[in-house]
Design brief:
With 39 residues, the protein is mostly helical. Helix content is 64%, strand content 0%. It has one domain.
Length: 39
């Protein structure tokens, strides 16, 4: 359930990334902002 809630809370910058590299970059920022480590 926790992973589903996190996935559903992803901001548009992550969801609409135009490449895998962009997705990783934006997802990294999102996770870092929330102090989530080891993803």
């Amino acid at each position: 359930q926790c992973a589903v809630n996190l996935w559903n809370s992803l901001p548009g910058d992550v969801v609409k990334a135009k490449s895998i590299t962009g997705l990783k970059k934006e997802l990294g920022k999102f996770m870092e902002d929330r102090s989530i480590n080891g993803y």
